[in-house]
């Protein structure tokens, strides 16, 4: 089973918007991979890991993303984005902390920050599709061959 084609069409349109906005691809990919790790979406973890590797991301950063807070491999801007992404994904308190929002606001323009919020929300939605529908990791790469 898959989600209705019309829904996917709109999700892909949002993906295209994301690729052309002010947020850097590196930050966007980091956020999408980290959120997918948190949500346990194997399909998205696989896809974003491969995408990042193909774009030149280092093994060191890919392997340590799950423990980004304890490693020296991420910039202050990346850390601010990852913190906002984690808090925006977990929402255990019902909201993102003022501290996370203020830190992100220091490192991103208003336009970039808006795009970051969209990226966080969008990957959370994709993760729901992937986990509910049990999408098989690597299936997209196999289909493309």
TrEMBL record:
Residue ranges of the Carboxymuconolactone decarboxylase-like domain?
Answer: 6-87
Entry's Gene Ontology molecular function annotations? peroxiredoxin activity
Cross-referenced InterPro entries: AhpD-like, AhpD_core, CMD-like
Supply the name of the protein.
Carboxymuconolactone decarboxylase-like domain-containing protein
What lineage, starting at the top, does this entry show?
A: Bacteria, Bacillati, Actinomycetota, Actinomycetes, Pseudonocardiales
